[in-house]
Design goal:
Oligomer: single chain
CATH topology of the largest domain: Elongation Factor Tu (Ef-tu), domain 3
Number of domains: 4
Number of strands: 14
Largest sheet: 6 strands, antiparallel, barrel
Number of helices: 9
Distance between the termini: 27 Å
Order of helices and strands: HHHHEEEEEHHEEEEEEEEEHHH
Helix content: 40-55%
Strand content: 15-25%
Structural class: alpha+beta
CATH class of the largest domain: Mainly Beta
Length: 412
């Protein structure tokens, strides 16, 4: 309507004035309600053509979208292990910090496993003390065996020396017995040394390995126990959290989530706008934009385009056992643009998830500074930059009408 009124000032009104004051035609006589088309046909035709051209130029060079939302992510709260809830630490719509406990499951079995693992570590420590005592015992037996061996060896040497001097003093049978005794006591020494080595190996290798295994089991049991408590992964606010003691919850995706965690700062200071695909060649990073949101009525928010998604989401496919049928893809998608406030705090009062209307304005100022630009091209670019005012006025009218539509004509 605004474009039509503007174009009529350049076509229809001059045509009427020409026929009224130059040609002398009078209202109610030559110019009547029934003859208005014939009398003003040139003005009406030019007005409609110019309106269509103006709307085309405005909409193409200064894209507009009603698909604008301050999107935000949520985190579904699921326990790692299913079971019955025994304790709830937070309430509905409560703010939490990273690492705060949210709720705890029944952990009787995990606590018993942790205690058993702890006792296994204590048992290995006791075995370590016993093994040290066994080393000392083996050392004593080794020294005793060495003493007995030395005594037998001394007696054998003495008897052997006497026999060499006089064979009648010591019998050969007695020498053989002493040799056998030395061999036996040597075996006892070797056995005692082996026992000592075994006890030392148990202390240095076997028991440390058993203790490491027991400690690993203890750590595993502690991890399983910790899994029974669900913690906040980020700072944020817990919402839709109606979990109570006695409820049974399961890990994802078996049942519904226990609640939702909305991260701190989610959806703030950014709008996501979907524009028509025909405007893909116009949208560029750095373009100035404006938006008005239903959650912040009667306000125009200055923005800037910070990113334009290089793909259109409607064309994505995933691997499956069926070929993609193009007719089933659905309607054409939009070009996604990221809009951020031009000034600090521009979106502070806009709640995440708000629906908005946004305009993006082309700017050819740098291009117009070029001396190589032709006259017609320069004129066209001047017109393009000028008609942005039309879109800006339309957005401000929408900002005024939005509260009326929501409160009066929306049926609320």
């Amino acid at each position: 309507m605004l474009e039509l009124m503007l174009c009529s000032m350049l076509t229809l009104v001059p045509d009427f004035l020409f026929r009224r004051f130059v040609q002398g035609k009078r209202l109610g006589r030559e110019i009547t309600l029934f003859s208005v088309w014939y009398e003003l046909r040139w003005g009406i035709t030019l007005c409609l053509i110019l309106t269509v051209l103006l709307i085309t130029v405005v909409l193409y060079n200064h894209p507009s979208s009603t698909n604008v939302t301050s999107l935000f992510r949520t985190i579904s709260l699921f326990p790692e292990v299913g079971g019955r809830v025994t304790k709830v630490y937070v309430d509905y719509n409560q703010r939490v910090k990273k690492g705060d406990p949210l709720f705890k499951m029944d952990s009787t079995r995990q606590e018993a496993s942790l205690e058993r693992a702890r006792l296994q570590v204590v048992e290995v420590d006791a075995s370590m003390a016993t093994a040290r005592a066994d080393v000392l015992t083996s050392e004593g037996k080794l020294q005793e065996a060495k003493g007995s061996l030395g005594q037998a060896q001394d007696e054998l040497r003495t008897k052997s020396t006497l026999q060499q001097r006089n064979a009648d003093i010591v019998a050969a049978r007695e020498i053989e017995k002493l040799q056998t005794l030395v061999a036996t006591r040597q075996g006892a020494v070797d056995a005692a040394a082996a026992a000592k080595e075994s006890a030392q190996t148990k202390i240095t290798t076997v028991l440390p390995a058993q203790k490491a295994s027991a400690e690993a089991g203890l750590a595993e049991a502690q991890v399983e126990l910790d899994k029974m408590t669900t913690y906040a992964g980020v700072d944020g606010r817990v919402d839709q959290f109606v979990l109570r003691v006695g409820d049974i919850v399961q890990p994802a995706p078996v049942t519904r989530a226990a609640g939702i965690l909305i991260p701190e700062g989610a959806g703030e200071n950014r709008l996501f706008a979907g524009f028509n695909q025909i405007e893909a060649q116009v949208l560029e990073v750095g373009m100035v934009a404006e938006a008005t949101c239903i959650s912040k009525p009667m306000t125009i928010i200055p923005l800037v385009v910070t990113k334009v998604q290089s793909v259109i989401a409607a064309g994505q496919i995933t691997g499956s056992n069926l070929l993609t049928e193009m007719q089933k893809i659905g309607p054409p998608g939009t070009v996604l643009a990221f809009l951020e406030p031009l000034y600090d705090g521009g979106l502070n009062d806009v709640p995440p998830g708000s629906s908005c209307i946004a305009n993006v304005y082309s700017n050819h100022h740098d291009e117009l500074e070029s001396k190589d630009l032709g006259f017609l091209k320069k004129l066209y670019l001047h017109i393009v930059d000028t008609v942005a005012l039309v879109h800006a006025l339309v957005l401000r009218l929408q900002a005024i009408i939005l509260p009326l539509k929501a409160l009066v004509f929306g049926g609320h």
